[in-house]
Amino acid sequence: KGRVRYFQGNNLIIWFLIPIVCGAAWLLITSEVYTQTKIEADYIRNSVKQTFNSDMEDVVFISGIFYPIDETGQRIINWRTFLGFGLFSILMTIPFTVIIVFGYRSWKIVRGLLDHGESEYSKNLQMQLYKALVAQTILPMIFLFIPFGLLFSLPMF
């Protein structure tokens, strides 16, 4: 049976629950932390009116402003936005860590197979597997983790 047992029976249910639980957590954070408030609506009101010719009362949006300006004109810290950013960061750290850890473990296995004096065909096959592994590790970083990190962290500064 080998490692197939990790994908059978009750373990299979766990594999299906992981994205459901993470998606529910993401939904909960988005709906509870990044709710539409007057501060956010006022912040983007003019842009929405000029760009889309729409009133804010007709627009549904989610947003977080790290340093909004209050009624007195002072810049304040919006701790809810920082809380949401922290929770989103935790949710993104979990799959990032899984990719790094299992990518490294797979790399060690493939490297070990290459070092065992196997046939040239086997070595080429293992090298193709290694290259596919590298691509599967780098692509999510480039197209998921880095853009998300920049999108949410740069407005803090």
Description:
With 157 residues, the protein is an all-alpha fold. The chain has 2 domains: 1-32; 80-157. The chain is 69% helix and 0% strand. It contains 4 helices and no strands. It has helices at 10-32, 38-52, 79-115, 120-153. Helix 3 (79-115) runs antiparallel to helix 4 (120-153). The chain is elongated. It starts with 9 loop residues before the first helix and ends with a helix. The mean pLDDT is 86. GO terms for molecular function: G protein-coupled olfactory receptor activity. The chain crosses the membrane at residues 12-29, 82-104, 132-154. Keywords: Membrane, Transmembrane, Transmembrane helix. It comes from Caenorhabditis remanei. This is G protein-coupled receptor.
The helix/strand class is mainly alpha
Strand residues, percent:
under 5%
Question: What is the H/E string?
Answer: HHHH
Helix count, per DSSP? 4
Topology:
Layout: H1 10-32, H2 38-52, H3 79-115, H4 120-153
Helix pairs in contact: 1-3, 3-4
Key structural traits:
mainly alpha; membrane; G protein-coupled receptor; about 160 residues; 7TM_GPCR_serpentine_rcpt_Str; transmembrane; about 0% strand
